Amino acid sequence: TEDAVNEICLYMAHAKGHSLASFLRQIVVKKMDGVSFEKFIALMFTLRGYKVEFTPSTADQGVDLIAVRNQERIAIQCKRWDDRVGSEAIYEVFTGKTIYKCTKGILITTASLTPQAEKMANELDIGCWDKDSIEALCEECVEKWDDAADIIERFASNKKLRVQDRFSSQDTEKVLGKIRKKHIIAHQDLQRSCWRFTDAAKLKAIIRELEQQGKIRGSWNERRGKKRGQIYTYIGD
Known about the structure:
Elements: H1 2-14, H2 21-29, H3 34-47, E1 51-54, E2 65-69, E3 72-79, H4 87-99, E4 104-109, H5 115-124, E5 127-129, H6 131-142, H7 149-157, H8 169-182, E6 184-186, H9 187-193, H10 200-212, E7 216-223, E8 226-234
Helix pairs in contact: 4-5, 8-10
Domain Restriction endonuclease type IV Mrr: 30-137
Pfam family, one: Mrr_cat
Protein name: Restriction endonuclease type IV Mrr domain-containing protein
């Protein structure tokens, strides 16, 4: 299973702009076991800015992962199956969502659902992600891979996944202070003013967190219809 995990890391590091269909068929669908599939989904959600927690391996109440971002709390069940998934799995996610006090429940599977499971998912408002959804998730996360060298290492070594560990609250406050002082600042100017305490990758992670917290807003500085660089506007604490 670790070979499959390492193959993911190698692929994702070099896959920019390439189709993921073959990768998904050969690695995610055919080579992964259930545990590796859970780790893979955890990595994808971490790259999207979520804090991901693994539930206990036994008595997990039908939920494998809890993904948290701002006020959103998602209960996720991962099914690396070949056979179709029945309605029992949908009910497990619904029950686990309630037990873990989540705002949303999602079943992510490499298989398809039975008609009864699809009907129950609609009735209980449980999201169902199939192979097409997983592929779309991968394509989104490939774009963020440059900022995730430490996450790759933690993923492969099965350590706790958490983007926020890459920087301190003091670093975040310093960056916010720079933006607050100018009110509107270009990315290049912000990077120059922050070079003493942060690098480019860390700065991007801090900016992403501040945007998620609603303290700043990122946009593109356009001139004559062309994008000239990103700018950040201070909204408030």
